[in-house]
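Recap from last week: sequence in, structure out.
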Amino acid sequence: MVLKAPFMGRLGGVSSEHPLASIVGSQVLREGGNAVDASVAVSLTLAVTQPHLGSLGGDFFALIFESSSGKVYCMNSSGWSPNRLDCQFLSEAGLDGIPINSPHAVVVPGLISGLQKIHERFGTVKFSKLVEPSVKLADEGFPVSHGLSEEINRYGEKLTDPSVRNLFFKDDGQPLAAGEMLVQKRLADVLRSLASDPRVFYEGWIAKSLCEFLNSKGGVFQIGDFMDFEGEWVEPLKNTYREFEVYEIPPNSQGATTLILLNILENFNLQTLTPLGARRVHLFVEAAKRAYLDKNRYLADPRFVEIPLEEILSKSHGKKLAETIKENAVLSDVSLRPGDTTNFVVIDEEGNVVSAIQSLFHRFGSGLLDPKTGILLNSRASYFNLSGPNSLEPRKRPLHTLSSVIAISENNELLAMGTSGGDYRPQQHVLLLTNMIDYGLDLQDAVEQPRFLWRGGTEIIIEKGFHGLDSLRKLGHNPILQTYPGRTGVAHCGFKSGKLTVLSADIRGDGLPVGPVS
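Predicted structure tokens:
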């Protein structure tokens, strides 16, 4: 039974984690903007309405399918660490890692540069026009969603920065409740400046303010760390799964993990395994263990390390890994780190598609909010290690959990998807893809199907609805049962075939799929 109805139309549409963002994007499409125009407006609206997940202080990635050429483009706008931060600095400061709630956890936020870059290449509506809805929402306020209210309550004790508490808590110290208004006047001023010139974020008063604020907390940022940063057009990863071409985000993203996992599973006939049965869970988890080992061994910022992508993405490599999967579970010392984010899918009437994602990494990021700009800042640098491919170095981008997917069938049917979840994201992408490709579920059923996620070691999070948990225990797994819907990420997906557009939002979130009717 479908719990949240999908949107179906012929003029495109938007699926995002906040209804206001979806409506804003749909209005851009209705007024003649294309998928990239709508994506800019959606992203900025999410930055206002979902500040705990993907504010202006976070990063941005996007896959863009251009219908006229049939080509998929990729924008990597993930920020780097400051030039004066390295492992020696941490050691001298008595740190054996980067604390989440510290200025050292912050990388230069990439979101605004990424939006500027995709707009310069594909946009048709003035950038200033696309900023207007987010300015209005920040300036006049909007009702706090149930999701945001729950997260303020859940993480309230960790939100100690005075500027953060002033934003999310009332004068009597109580957190904002669902339906109460959140007003962000400082952020509205920032957005007005960005409407005139997005580079102000990196070269003007905004960059100066962010550097001064972070350094007042003990950070080591210089204005040059911002001035030198730009989002980067990169070649997307591409591989095949069954009759589909699958595109993912290349390193420094962990998107290759998705493709390695698919390559392993392609060696098995999943249709013989019950979708909600123990055998599917066992096979999937054992494949994931092997894919994540490759992730940890090889993936990082390619400007700093050599990555054997051709080898680890080859079908022969996937087959070799598949052949090592046995009846019983193998022990794995891989640990996975959860995170949170917000993603969206936009499809326009011409068939252009954007699958995008933006994030602070952890909920509320570093918990640091610059009082002059109202920008809540990310915690992405806390993902750095002190050794190995993903070790901290100046101006290095951390290995990123963010990625998104576009998949195109031999019949030119197009799937676009993204989900929240940190290190779990490759598993979530593969679950969604196999739900649709191997088990023939439609878009909404694939999203709403109960999920399971390997979370490192022997533990598997399993939403209620699966059977055979005793069998999993006998095979060496430790299933941890959750209610349905559980906390297994929030997905947004799109499907395009001919004139038909279908968009789905996850029952696990507050999102809404909408589109223009004329």
